[in-house]
Amino acid sequence: MELKRVVVTGIGAVTPLGNNKNDYWDALAKGVSGAAPITRFDSEKFRTKFACEVKGFDPLDFLDRKEARKMDPNSHYGMVAGDEAIVDSGLDLEKTNKDRIGVIWGSGIGGFTTFQDEVVSYAKGDGTPRFNPFFVPKMILDITPGLLSIKYGFRGPNFATVSACASSNNALSDAYNYIRLGKANVILTGGSEAAVIETGIGGFNALKALSERNDDPTTASRPYDKDRDGFVLGEGAGALMLEDLDHAKARGAKIYAEVLGVGMSADAYHITAPHPDGDGIVLVMNEALADANIKPTEVDYINTHGTSTPLGDAGEVKAIQKVFGEHAYNMNISSTKSMTGHLLGAAGAIESIASIMALELGIIPPTINHFTDDPEIDPKLNLTFNTAQKRDVNVVVSNTFGFGGHNASVIFGKYSG
């Protein structure tokens, strides 16, 4: 069968840098850090006392009070980003067959706040099992796509993907495949995460995964820097409307970009550490390139996973050099996690948005907070340090990797008719 072409027609974002796509992108292009001391709880006794929190966000500005109380913050972020993407797409919901519109959403943890609060409340009580009747639906990871479908009446494919920090890239990959196989005309996809809470910070501290640069949070996320000491936890959501090209053209939709191909792989190595030779990363990028039917020399920019961890950053860069060879020196490479922190299951969604905006505007968002070269990382590579760079961008790769060895890459291209 002939596979359908798939394009992006709507974007929505709730991030540590801004609560809509325009504010998010403006901050990225300016190299703004979203890191600051934690405000949600008293972090004094924690080894890490800062994070990239969503700021100035009130769910009641967007959601009915009664409905908002039935949702975890994970879903608040997802609902608002999803709504922005739907509006941005210009899709007329009264004239569109909703049987052919789906929602496929990613999250690494889901309703973490709800789970923590309910368990703490029970533990502090007298043993009587008093739980919120919405405890389970607020907690489960698939509730956000369910809520979006209920609100808008979308009756197409509807489920959640869970692959730790690769979750929303896996969601986007599934959405792409469902549309190109003719199973749906439109799918709202993306991811959300809300883990900046005591158990989130404490759990990642116990893994020794987080930066502990408490004296200067804004420079704590340092992908590729010699003195990087772990990632900065972030939160928020990103949403993209994917659409069958013919369907989009028929309604005169604005097209941001085309999804050219996707790749998925596993390290099959360790629960948290990346493969030392980057085998899974090499495999996933090669799979994505083959799926897109493009040559490595056609790629202009890679938005890397780049979390600011000692092993992960160096391994991804070495894998890029294996896949792209000499062309690696002609590309731009950057980690926007240097600004947003790591949104876990939502990382792929907001980084896909950054990739698409780079395509549309010809601006590569920077890797901020570079101070000292790492001798393990080739200094001749253009890692777009500290300042955004302008260039013609036609093809972008967006990488995400998750605990458990999950890898997912998505390739976007400039739409050319």
Automatic annotation (TrEMBL):
Known EC number: 2.3.1.179
Domain of life assignment: Bacteria
Keyword Acyltransferase part of the UniProt annotation: yes
GO molecular function, one term: 3-oxoacyl-[acyl-carrier-protein] synthase activity
Keywords: Acyltransferase, Fatty acid biosynthesis, Fatty acid metabolism, Lipid biosynthesis, Lipid metabolism, Transferase
Residues covered by the Ketosynthase family 3 (KS3) domain: 3-414
Lipid biosynthesis recorded as keyword: yes
SUPFAM superfamilies: Thiolase-like
Pathway per the UniProt entry: Lipid metabolism; fatty acid biosynthesis
Reactions mediated catalytically: (9Z)-hexadecenoyl-[ACP] + malonyl-[ACP] + H(+) = 3-oxo-(11Z)-octadecenoyl-[ACP] + holo-[ACP] + CO2; a fatty acyl-[ACP] + malonyl-[ACP] + H(+) = a 3-oxoacyl-[ACP] + holo-[ACP] + CO2
Residue ranges the record marks as coiled coil: none
NCBIfam families the UniProt entry points to: fabF, PRK07314.1
Functional summary from the UniProt entry: Involved in the type II fatty acid elongation cycle. Catalyzes the elongation of a wide range of acyl-ACP by the addition of two carbons from malonyl-ACP to an acyl acceptor. Can efficiently catalyze the conversion of palmitoleoyl-ACP (cis-hexadec-9-enoyl-ACP) to cis-vaccenoyl-ACP (cis-octadec-11-enoyl-ACP), an essential step in the thermal regulation of fatty acid composition.
Family of this protein: Belongs to the thiolase-like superfamily. Beta-ketoacyl-ACP synthases family.
Record's protein name: 3-oxoacyl-[acyl-carrier-protein] synthase 2
Organism whose genome encodes this protein: Marinoscillum luteum
